[in-house]
Amino acid sequence: MRGECLTGAPRARTFGFACLVLLPLLSGCASVIPDAGPRPAATAPATPGYQPRPSEAGTVAAQPVPATPNPPLAAPPVPVEATTAAESGVIAGPEYNELGVSAEQAAAALKAFRLSCPPLQRRADASGLTLPGEWAESCNAAKSWADRDAGNFFSRYFGTVQVGAGTAFVTGYYEPEIAASRTKSPGYDVPVYRRPADLVDVDLGQFSDDLKGRKVRGRVEGSNLVRYYDRAAIEGGALAGRGLEIAWAADAAEFFFLQIQGSGRLRLPDGQIMRIGYDTQNGRDYVGIGKLLVDRGELQRGQTSMQGILDYLRADPVRGAAVMNENPSWVFFRELTGPGPLGALGVPVTGRASVAADPKYVPLGAPVFLSLDRAEPNGLWIAQDTGGAIKGVNRFDSFWGAGVEARAIAGGMAGRGSALILLPRASVARLTLGG
Fold first, then answer.
1. pLDDT by residue (tens digit) across 19-51?
2. Which of 26, 182, 292, 399 could covalently link to 354 via disulfide, CB atoms 3.0 to 4.6 Å apart?
């Protein structure tokens, strides 16, 4: 469900706000679809003496609870050509019982792991850490294992490994809730679009072996495939009058952030909740406006939390609209009627139990243990999602659920420390003992 990262990585889907506060991330190739799976405009002048204030929702970033992380295990240097966990090197970690996971955390992780087992066993593991069938024993046991005894479950069926240097960086995301209406009316005039029929994906691998795994997204104009409309064009009415609106949001800046997250809740005028989820995006590269504002000196690094950027956008709506249009990516949605929000495994993600990870470095569905310099995300999680900014070894995005507290924690989450991956004992033995 992850969307896009404000500081600068491409993507839709699987999506975290703490990435706004930190260093710029890599941009994607303009000719290739941002890995999903959530432009020029007038430059706004800096506002002298601008200081962020609490957003209209009354939510400010939560103050970090400091903690002392476990140091990573000593490991050989990671080969520069490594692109997967297996290529980065794996060493055995401590036993589960040495990690200090609480019974509550273990129970939540077991529930999430149980949901992940069906797709986990069907997926090819791009990380190279596990082989088909190695998850069968733990998944079969999870079906009937009592949640109250979850600690013994993880202790019995899993060992731990450190991938590469073990140094972890963790951000946060949540399921936003914004005011909206199913019909356009005064105060509700920001369109929430479904996927347009003229948005097409092209698999370049069908035309050249050298382009296998690469795709482009666009629309047909005459006999040519051209790039799809960017955010500025869509905001300017490129899709108006086509009946694509599934709802109308009340606040353009709040909806901008919901697009970054990739899914969310729409609070309707009668109090009902409409849930929407990522369907696709327009194929345009994501541009992080937080980095743009820092580079221009309009915000300081300490002001680039979600809340700080919201305040900046609202302080001058015309200037805010111009800044948002500098991110050409636009996310399309569909209404969700079942449980959700859904992660990359196609199962619901769980607040305080699910993380997004790079499938090349963590098997989706695997448990992950985090030990960071922030206490809130420390403990056991299940990798159930992905994200465009969530790339590389030991890079995670923690999901905090919905509501004011979730928004406050996710809005400023940035933890550094160490990470361990929990794998079936057969996998650990094969990887670390050459079995």
1. 443 333 322 323 344 433 332 222 222 322 323
2. 399
CATH homologous superfamily of domain 1-192+248-435? RlpA-like domain (2.40.40.10)
CB atoms within 10 A of CB 102: 12
CA distances, 336 to each of 63, 93, 265, 343, 377 (Å): 33, 40, 10, 13, 28
Task: Annotate 326-350 with b (16+ C-beta within 10 A) or e (fewer).
Answer: bbbbbbbbeebeeebbbbbbebbbb
Q: Is 430 left (phi over 0), alpha (psi -120 to 50) or beta?
A: alpha
Beta pairing partners, 263 = 277
pLDDT in tens, 114-124: 999 999 999 99
Strand 167-175 and strand 395-402: pairing? parallel
Distance CA 360, CA 366 (A): 12
Helix (H/G/I), strand (E/B), else coil: 428: helix
29: buried, middle or exposed (CB in 10 Å: 19+, 13-18, 0-12)?
A: exposed
Radius of gyration of the chain (CA): 22
Cα(178)–Cα(102) distance, rounded to whole angstroms? 34
